[in-house]
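dumping this here so i dont lose it
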């Protein structure tokens, strides 16, 4: 007889929320670094 394993898809919601929040924080930091004026740029 095949063994049945119950998987609760809601058990990992906390980790998924942390991953999404970290992604958006890194996205904001990355875009700010891209838009920041360069120190070596000559006018």
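and the seq i came up w/
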């Amino acid at each position: 007889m095949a063994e049945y394993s119950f998987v609760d898809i809601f058990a990992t919601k906390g980790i998924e929320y942390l991953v999404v929040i970290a992604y958006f924080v890194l996205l904001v930091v990355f875009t700010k670094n891209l838009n920041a004026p360069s120190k070596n740029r000559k006018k």
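The chain has a mean pLDDT of 84.
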